[in-house]
Specification:
The complex is a heterodimer of chains A (765) and B (389).
Chain A lengths: L2 H4 L12 H4 L7 E4 L7 H5 L5 H5 L2 E2 L3 H8 L1 H6 L17 H16 L2 E4 L9 E15 L10 H20 L4 E12 L2 E13 L1 H4 L4 H11 L23 E3 L7 E3 L2 E2 L10 E15 L5 H29 L4 E11 L3 E13 L8 E5 L5 H24 L9 H4 L13 E4 L18 E6 L2 H12 L7 E3 L11 E15 L7 H22 L6 E11 L5 E13 L8 H19 L6 H8 L5 H5 L28 E2 L8 E18 L7 H23 L4 E15 L4 E17 H10 L1 H15 L1
Chain B lengths: L1 E9 L6 H8 L10 H4 L17 H8 L2 H5 L3 H22 L2 H6 L7 H12 L3 H7 L6 H5 L1 H8 L3 H19 L5 H9 L3 H16 L13 H15 L24 H6 L5 H4 L1 H15 L6 H21 L3 H5 L1 H15 L4 H14 L9 H18 L3
Helix pairs in contact in B: 3-5, 10-11, 11-13, 12-13, 13-14, 14-22, 17-18, 17-21, 18-20, 21-22
Chain lengths: 765, 389
């Protein structure tokens, strides 16, 4: 294993040669794993025969299983099993595809194996997207011999990354984008999770050369705009898993899956119909309290079922919304003393390239019972109504396309006989069609036990946001382009205590569901003055700080948009975004790295206009006497904006001032006096915001972008009147100028705009 | 499932005006017990809550129909209310010194919202201010707030806030030189209107004018504030522009205390009623000028000596602190009540007072014209304001 000898701390390795691709977000790292070209799966993921396993207990599912589980996102959507594909797709593809693949492959081989944690890319960078790949592993921390040394941990992560890599390869992809890793620790048990989106990248971007060159080339190539990334990267005759393919509804040339799950943001040029919405799957599972290996085994046994259920929920909710793709998917599994929590958040959209999703059909197990039948049909009606309502709400009106153009999908040999089955829906026009055709196949939910009943109920309990509100967990909401400059970033924390007696999985699920739903409802209520607005980058974090406590932390930004211009054509949007991307590339990506020494003094501080926009009180300003007025009575504190997004609507970022990464620990021994836990944490978070703002202001900035609260660990001991909290936040300090003021600034001081690129040039030479 | 912790913090601090008003009015944000009786039906609106688990503030918000407008639940409302209440509690110490609110870094609040926070925090209830106007802003008075609360129906919490505001403003400007209104405006960033009201409150508290007597009950705070402004403009040290040249620390506060010398001099006016010839001459001058112009001429003629005696004696008595305090009582007793019993129209009162003060200039034997003008000029304005039902 060359891993450790080459790179002692390889698990978070920064690749500086690609700075032009990295740059924008502080939390976008490019992982770089030295990849063994001839991977022997057994070394990494087999049972306890490897030397590693002698030291550490590891639940690493067998290769065949894990591939299946990690691809289950697509698996679920896809109709009858055709058996596992070989995964070595590409040889039989079209000549262009093969060529492209070769190029990519060589480019990637040259660069070894890239994992991109970026979620947004320049247009043309993503050639194909295969789907979500993920891997999890349960480890025991107390089995590490020398915890101070990173070797064991590195080996663990390397193992997981290898697995991710092989999943991506099975999907015919060379790279993983939108990649992220996370851990959840309870006592000595640790769950390591990694997920990303398998993708085929444009080789030109990976070769040496400027981004602009690639952009030009891309335009010359005339790749299908808006649907290219949806086309399957794998070979349709030799698929890695059973898939249900149709010809792309956009270009009609290539095959697309019927559903697409990804961890990345919606590509800027993607053709989308209607608006998107936040979709969450929530799940709790009770687990017996246990120690060490027994505990790890229990968790390991639960995990596959949880993953499966989370995906089922996601798929059902997606269908209920009448949508066909998920972006920004983030599945978080948290481990506690006596339970496991799963929370998946994603943004559902309707991709124009993908087929219209079928409905959801409920099937009862005992069809003889009359009243039961009635109940079933009632529920079926409710579901159908909900789908219709959602389509209206999210403005999903895809154009009708006749069957002939689409062509026949891949034949499906047999029906699946699991909880979820695919069936043909016999709608009026297509009655004569073969069952195996299954163009508009419905999802069948068989409610044969109480669990399934609960599931169907919970599907219907999710209340849509009030009118005028939209929400998503991606950077921007598809279908809304006209943001105003009014933004409100916020953090909300809730902790609930479960009544410990007689907790069942159902009760637990309901509690957790209510917690999340109420939290969202509260947000909608609090921000009602901003309507029409969209909650963007909604980021839920779940933790189980104690036996009966569930903590949910949400950070997001609410952005008001102009309702009157809400409908813009996608084309102009795409053009706009292209422009944005290109200007970004030219002016912003090469920001100077040595800021502190030279750049700041030479460069004027933030354009004064941006800082002074919202200052000064109207209260009796004119009445101040100079005699004893406070020193800065006329210049109140400058406004510092904060946003988890990488941009500020209606403004242009003129300068990046560097990463802010701050840790705060606060402790109190007078909890009651400070207003209890809520008072304590409220004041603390307000102060954290204030310190971040002050820090940015001190650097000469007027905004924080890509803001993220990475940690919020809260512990209390009410009996001792004590509480502690640790918070870690990070983001990029920037200077922005309002677009309305930009012209004034640029005419007044033309130097201000060209300076960053000049300085950048100096640094790179 | 019980909620242990529930917070919302925005980068820009959210301020809900309605909740702010409830908080200022002293309604409890915590699970209340009194709401059950006070707000009757509102408590059980949320079926799931079942029990009367709703605070006063939330119950009031429910009654405003906000749930129907927004489709929210009572639990959401409770959570929202608590968030706001916590924010306001944290802001309260800053509101005690408003310039601090402008310069603090913890809460990012747009300037217009800051102004609103300050203005509303320092706003007061008419009913409350009438109760404490002219009283010493001391611990003793604070103890009476219970009774005032019961009497006015304003919550004790709100009474305390208003009382503390008065006291705080008083303490800050007490030792200051210069214009009272300007000082208040500068240190509390209040609007002009509110700053003037506070100037009146401080002026009354400092001079301890009696305003609580039964016969003064018909007067509003506005009436007193009007008089206070006139008195500040004309009867204080600051009024005559005698900026003290020597930095005497014992010097009276320019706008808050009445000009002692002026009060002493007012004794000289006594001659107007003590000298019978002067009094008769004064009367004949006034009567000649007003004959045919007054609807109540005969009553005026009959009462002239009494009224004049009353007004001049009030002036002569102002040397004693005790009598200064009773100024308004005396004015009402000696002038307003006789006029009212004879049903003088307001216009007649104005004509009479104008002629009454102007005629003195024609009295050859009277040497204190300037003093008379300084006294009557203000008094005329005050009396006109005090003459209503």
């Amino acid at each position: 294993m060359p891993l450790d000898s080459q790179q002692p701390n390889s698990h978070c390795y920064w690749l500086t040669t690609y700075s032009e691709l990295l740059c924008v977000c502080s939390h976008s790292h490019l992982y770089w794993i030295p990849f063994n070209e001839d991977p022997n799966p057994n070394t990494h993921s087999s049972g306890p025969s490897t030397p590693l396993k002698n030291q550490t207990y590891s639940f690493s599912p067998s290769k065949s299983y894990s591939r299946q589980s990690s691809s289950s996102d697509t698996d679920l959507s896809l109709t009858p099993k055709t058996g596992m594909g070989s995964g070595s797709a590409g040889k039989e593809g079209g000549p262009f595809k093969a060529l492209l693949r070769q190029q990519t492959q060589s480019a990637l081989e040259q660069r070894e194996f890239p994992f991109f944690t970026l979620t947004a890319f320049p247009p043309g960078f993503l050639v194909h997207v295969g789907g979500v790949v993920s891997a999890r592993s349960v480890k025991l921390l107390d089995r590490i011999h020398n915890p101070d040394e990173p070797e064991t941990r590195d080996a663990w992560w390397a193992e997981i990354r290898q697995e991710i890599k092989s999943h991506a390869k099975a999907l015919g992809c060379h790279a993983v984008v939108g990649y992220s890793e996370s851990t959840s620790i309870c006592e000595e048990v640790c769950i390591l999770s990694a997920s990303g989106t398998a993708a085929v990248l444009n080789p030109r971007f990976l070769q040496d050369g400027t981004v602009e060159g690639c952009l030009e080339q891309r335009l010359e190539e005339n790749l299908p705009a808006g649907c290219g990334f949806c086309h399957i990267p794998y070979d349709e005759l030799n698929m890695p898993f059973p898939a249900h393919l149709t010809y792309c509804y956009n270009c009609r040339k290539q095959k697309v899956p019927d559903v697409l799950f990804t961890t990345i943001d919606l590509p800027m040029d993607a053709a989308v119909i209607g608006k998107g919405c936040l979709i969450q799957a929530r799940l709790c599972r009770l687990k017996k309290k246990a120690q060490a290996e027994a505990n790890a085994t229990a968790i390991s046994n639960l995990l596959p079922f949880m993953e499966y259920e989370v995906h089922t929920q996601l798929m059902n909710k997606l269908k209920l919304k009448g949508m066909n793709a998920l972006f920004g998917l983030r599945i978080q599994i948290s481990v506690g003393e006596n339970m496991l929590m799963g929370l998946a958040s994603a943004t559902g959209v309707y991709l124009a390239a993908l087929p219209t999703p079928g409905g959801i059909q409920i099937a009862g197990k005992t069809p003889n019972d009359g009243s039961y039948e009635q109940h079933i049909s009632h529920m079926q009606k409710k579901i159908n109504d909900t789908i219709a309502k959602n389509k209206e709400l999210y403005e999903i009106n895809p154009p009708e396309i006749s069957e002939e153009i689409i062509g026949s999908p891949i034949p499906e040999p047999r029906q699946r006989s699991r909880l979820l089955r695919s069936q043909s829906e016999s709608s009026d026009e297509v009655t004569e069609l073969d069952l195996s055709h299954g163009k508009k196949d419905a999802f069948v939910l068989e409610i044969d036990d109480t669990d399934a009943m609960e599931d169907v109920h919970s599907l219907l309990t999710d209340v849509p946001p009030p009118s005028g509100f939209y929400s998503c967990n991606t950077e921007i909401m598809p279908g809304i382009n006209n943001w105003t400059s009014e933004i409100q970033m916020f953090t909300s924390v809730r902790v609930i205590r479960l009544s410990s007696l007689n907790l069942t999985n159902q009760a637990l699920n309901k509690n957790f569901n209510d917690l999340c739903e109420n939290l969202l409802k509260s947000l909608y209520f609090k921000l009602r003055s901003m309507i029409p607005c969209c909650l963007c980058h909604v980021n839920f974090t779940v933790s189980l700080p104690e036996d009966e406590l569930i903590q949910v932390t949400v950070t997001a930004v609410a952005i008001t948009f102009d309702k009157n211009q809400a409908l813009q054509t996608t084309k102009t949007h795409a053009e706009k975004s292209l422009q944005r991307a290109s200007t970004d590339n030219e002016e912003l990506l090469q920001f100077p790295l040595e800021l502190c020494s030279d750049a700041l003094p030479s460069h004027p501080f933030p354009p004064a206009k941006a800082v002074t926009v919202e200052k000064a009180s109207p209260v009796g300003e004119g009445n101040f006497r100079n005699r004893s007025s406070p020193p800065c009575a006329n210049s109140t504190v400058g406004v510092v904006k904060m946003t988890p997004l990488s941009f500020i609507p209606g403004a242009k970022i003129t300068k990046y001032l560097g990463i802010i990464n701050m840790f705060f620990i606060r402790e109190t021994t007078s909890l009651r006096e400070e207003g209890g836990v809520s008072g304590f944490l409220h004041a603390f978070i307000a102060e954290v915001f204030a310190m971040v703002r002050a820090h940015v202001a001190a650097l000469g900035g007027n905004a924080v972008v890509s803001y993220i609260m990475k940690q919020c660990v809260f512990m209390e001991n009410p009996n001792k009147n004590q509480a502690q909290c640790l918070i870690n936040v990070s983001g990029d300090a920037v200077v922005f100028v309002r677009e309305s003021e930009l012209e004034v600034v640029s005419t007044q001081q033309p130097a201000a705009n060209c300076q960053p690129s000049c300085t950048g040039g100096e640094v790179t030479t | 499932m019980t909620s242990e912790l529930d917070i919302f913090v925005g980068n820009t601090t959210l301020i809900d005006e309605d909740v702010y008003r409830l908080w200022l009015d002293g309604y409890s944000g915590l699970w209340g017990t009194v709401c059950g009786c006070r707000f009757g039906g509102a408590v059980v609106l949320d079926g799931r809550a079942g029990r009367a688990r709703m605070s006063d503030a939330v119950a009031l918000r429910v009654r405003s129909g906000i749930l129907e407008q927004t489709g929210a639940t009572a639990a959401v409302l409770q959570s929202d209310t608590m968030d706001h209440y916590r924010t306001f509690q944290m802001l309260e110490r800053l509101l005690h010194a408003p310039p601090k609110l402008l310069h603090q870094l913890i809460f990012q609040i747009p300037p217009s919202r800051q102004a609103l926070l300050i203005e509303r925090y320092y706003a007061f209830d008419e009913a409350f201010v009438r109760e404490v106007l002219g009283k010493k802003l001391s611990k003793g008075t604070k103890k009476d707030l219970d009774d005032i609360s019961t009497k006015t129906g304003i919550t004790l919490k709100s009474c305390r806030r208003q009382f503390d505001n008065f006291k705080r403003v008083f303490k800050v400007v007490e030792e200051m030189r210069g214009s009272l209104v300007d000082n208040i405006q500068q240190h509390f960033l209040l609007s002009d209107r509110l700053a003037r009201d506070y100037a009146a409150i401080v002026f009354f508290a400092n001079n301890r004018f009696e305003t609580g007597k039964k016969k003064l009950q018909y007067l509003s705070f506005g009436d007193f504030a009007f008089c206070a402004e006139l008195m500040i403009q004309n009867w204080t040290l600051g009024a005559v522009g005698e900026a003290p040249t020597d930095p005497d620390p014992q010097a009276d506060d320019m706008d808050m205390d009445l000009d002692k010398e002026f009060l002493q001099d007012l004794k000289e006016l006594k001659v107007l009623v003590a000298d019978k010839d002067l009094l008769d001459l004064h009367k004949s001058l006034v009567c000649t000028a007003l004959r045919g112009k007054l609807g109540v001429f005969s009553e005026m003629e009959a009462n002239f000596k009494n009224l004049s005696r009353g007004l001049v004696n009030v002036a002569a008595k102002l040397t004693h602190n005790k009598d200064v305090r009773d100024l308004f009582v005396d004015l009402v007793e000696k002038f307003v009540e006789p006029c009212r019993s004879d049903h003088w129209p307001l216009n007649d009162v104005r004509l009479f007072l104008n002629q009454y003060s102007a005629s003195v200039h024609s009295l050859d034997g009277f040497r204190h014209q300037a003093l008379w003008d300084r006294y009557m000029g203000t008094l005329r304005g005050c009396l006109l304001r005090l003459c209503h039902d």
